[in-house]
């Protein structure tokens, strides 16, 4: 289990995705189950490696409450047929600082985000609050098959040059 050593600056293009949002004590599990059901219903299980999977707290945990929100995304191809009740959105692209961890448990999220925030403090960049921060799961088969084991993730922080 290891955090990547170097923060990378990456530019992401605008993406189209389907979104699943849940709120409670363990919203990641519920949002992922909703996504899993949608993937199965659309016969995409054998093709998950063709898509990207992102997630983030929405809203963040607050002091004194075990409840918080989590939103799970999966990118969609332009020709993917969706239903009216599906929450399909676009995410604005732009510049991101990216730092990841490989072959680790979800407990590595905290240290990875802390390392990314620490990097930003002396980087010449500031957080761009006009765009969403998120994690990308690089092991979607593990995510969607409820396998216990290790995951690989990249954490993305939207940034802009200071004084831009």
Q: Could you list some keywords that capture this structure?
A:
ten-stranded antiparallel beta sheet, 164 residues, 3 helices, alpha+beta, globular, single chain, Multidrug-efflux Transporter 1 Regulator Bmrr, Chain A
The sequence of SSEs as H and E is EEEHEEEEHEEHE
Strand content: 35-45%
Q: Which regions have little confidence, pLDDT < 50, spanning 5+ residues? A: none
> How many separate domains?
1
Name the CATH superfamily classification.
Answer: Regulatory factor, effector binding domain
The CATH topology is given as: Multidrug-efflux Transporter 1 Regulator Bmrr, Chain A
Work out the helix count: 3
Helical coverage, percent range: 10-25%
Question: In one word, what is the shape?
Answer: globular
Number of strands: 10
User: Any idea of the CATH class?
Assistant: Alpha Beta
Largest sheet: 10 strands, antiparallel
**CATH architecture type:** Alpha-Beta Barrel
Mean pLDDT reading: 90
Return the structural class.
alpha+beta
Radius of gyration of CA atoms, rounded to a whole number: 16 Å
């Amino acid at each position: 289990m290891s955090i990547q050593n170097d923060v990378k600056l990456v530019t992401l293009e605008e993406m189209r995705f389907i979104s699943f949002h849940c709120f409670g004590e363990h919203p990641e599990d519920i949002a992922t189950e909703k996504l899993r059901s949608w993937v199965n219903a659309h016969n995409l299980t054998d093709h998950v490696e063709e898509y990207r999977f992102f997630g983030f707290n929405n809203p963040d945990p607050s002091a004194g409450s075990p409840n918080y929100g989590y939103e799970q995304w999966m990118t969609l191809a332009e020709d993917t047929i969706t239903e009216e009740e599906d929450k399909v959105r676009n995410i604005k692209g732009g510049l991101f600082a990216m730092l990841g961890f490989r072959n680790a448990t979800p407990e590595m999220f905290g240290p990875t985000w802390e390392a990314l925030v620490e990097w930003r403090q002396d980087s010449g960049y500031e957080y761009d609050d006009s765009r969403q921060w998120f994690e990308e799961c690089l092991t979607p088969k593990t995510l969607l098959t409820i396998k216990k084991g290790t995951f690989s993730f990249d954490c993305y922080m939207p940034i802009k040059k200071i004084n831009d």
